[in-house]
Fold these 4 entries.
Entry 1:
Amino acid sequence: MIDNISQATLDVIEAIKTKQTIKFNYGMDIVRVVTPTGFFGDFDGFEGTDEDTESREFRRFRFDKVNEWIGIKDIRHELECALRESRDITKEAKYLCYPIGEITTKLSSLADQHGLLDEMNELLDQVTAAEHNLESAFYECESVFEEAISELELREDYD
């Protein structure tokens, strides 16, 4: 049973307005993630798509059958987690230099053997610049999550 039915009702209304999902435990200790679309009965429950089902089934859920109310998903928290995860992923970009370094060394040695080191170094400088640009581009990918968090903070400030 829900401790605060008023808060649950407000969460459903807010989720409908902002097209967010809500979480709750609906029997059998299964946490449901639902995008609500409306209420049924005299606010006996709400209806919406069950995001955890393969075909995103439309279902109805009675408030009196909910074991635990979690509420609206915390989008900011999820974005902050995604930002941390993206930083872990982009750290892998710094290891791209190892195979590039090996290839550069091999080409440099080969060019040196044939008296073409100066010509090769000019081109390998371009490879090094491209390597730095690639690494920077990967780190820029983090900004997608940073900007989403900033936009969310701005919306919260104006609400």
Entry 2:
Amino acid sequence: MLNDTQVPAPRVAIAEDSGVPTRQWFRFFSNLYDFIGLGTGAVPPTSGGTGQNTYVAGDLLYADAANSLARLPVGGNHCYLGTDATNMPQWVQVAYGAYYDTTSPSFTAGTPTIIPIGTVQFERNMTLAANRVTIDQTGTYTVTFSIQLTNASANDDRFIVWLRVDGADAADTASYVSVLKKHGSDNGSALVTVNLFCQFTAGQYFELYGLSKLGYAQVNTYAASSSPAYPQSPGVILTVAQVV
């Protein structure tokens, strides 16, 4: 360990007459060289350095111990900075998905029925299969969906929609909507829009379920129009995004 007693006395010349450093000063500079880490190619944190000698654009330095620094390589696109189980920083890929469905499922009166979700717009770290969205990484998610409903009967109806997680009804996720009866040539209609915050663990899946109280209210896709021009309105739209 370097200390001030190793500094040569003032009477000791730095160099010989030949210009070669004297032995005392050579030893001192050699010890200093090793102490600040130049001999290893990187100045250690204990000497005011980082202990790193190579970097890539976007790298971050963090303390992995009281006297040590580590390098965290830059994350990929759409990542946020989080921590692992040991409270060390890590890049976490954001999970998200956007889905819709344009089929016309049939709802029997008073019968819980799965609401189909058949088309993937895009997804990351989650997967849609057989009307189920499976979550790949643990976290808190926002689940938002809208459902177009129609009623072609002469009676009002009610429609209930909720989440099932791993095959079980998720508590406090149900929403009710009244779908009015047909008036003249116009079918009754309603739009259910729900936003939920849900905590999922990796490997869990969820489904949308619905129930038509009298069997009159049904999910419906409205076709696009050219005059006046407007796009198709899918019967079901679902978006999922990880919050943390």
Entry 3:
Amino acid sequence: MNTSRGFLHITYKLYHHLDIIDGVKKSYCLNVFLSVMKYAWKKNGYKAGLRHETIHKDTGLCRTTIKECLETLNKLNIIKSIRGRSGKTYIVNEVFLKAEKTYEPTQIAVKPTPDSRFTTTLEETIYINNIGKIVKSLAGDSQRIISELSKLPIEDLRNEKVNVYLCKQAIQLKEDNERESKATYVNADKILSALSKIKKETNHRYKEKKEYNIRNGIKPWESK
């Protein structure tokens, strides 16, 4: 039986997950992702040991762009990279893939084309949680995305499997905001008054005058 790769289903979840990337970098990242998938097979756990030279030959992109794209894909939890002795091993996050099937080429030629009247329409339902909706609606504006995500329950952010990098940033912002809200601040007038008193107490002429008044029992406030 021929077990060659059949159809590789990459979900729209991946495409929209990259919406936060500006300009042509999104297309570069998709190009690099497809190059990695060329070597990352299901039977290998979607792992592939690759050099940048291999990806360069597949995509035509320069090594600097390839490196930047791989770093971006790693931050977005799409491809995880593990450094080895002779290069890096890349592991694709299966959240962005559909089940991969195999086929026998000889069966394709003899199988009759089904009548479209009786063909079941394929309907794909993609679950997008609140985090996904925020990321998609504010695509390209990382600061606003992180700000909006920080308003969600912290457990939702910690349990997110797709937008991991953004959720980590949102958790940090959420914790910073909570510390800020609990902080106790001293009234500005009190601070200025305390500083003025310190300045006055450290003045040499004032100290001499104060000691003179104490020695002679003079109370300036009573003479006012």
Entry 4:
Amino acid sequence: MTDCASPKGQVATAHERRIAREMAVRWNADVIMTGKGLDDDVSIVDALFSRHGTLTAVAEIKWRGESLALDTLRHLQSYLITHRKLQRGRVVARLLHVPLILIVGLTDCTVWWLIADEDGRWCEHPEVRRTWTQKNINGGTALRWNAYVSLAQMHVERK
């Protein structure tokens, strides 16, 4: 069973799908979710956004609505995400020639960043450090390369 197939994972996946739909409405776009929720999910990106039948972006989507508010995120001064997720998303963005967007649902709003352009070049250069973090939504710990995304270019969408 993958992390997203666990009970906690299924809740997070449902919220991420809702966040994607809400952002699609804000951006006047359509959204297609990738294989999240399947027992063998190995999706590199979470969503594909399109407009009038043309792909416009790929996205990594996270839900932190149980634990993280905008004020707390601002106090932390960056958003932590596994660096590998951004690296792999950049590859997909380059191959499809669309930007990579990181979208995070918080307790009081949704925030997003343009991470890479259509050529896979960083738009947001995160600080990368090898640190101990929570392994997955179900707990545990893991030592891995993590990206600390600056809040300087963060966009805030109020609910």
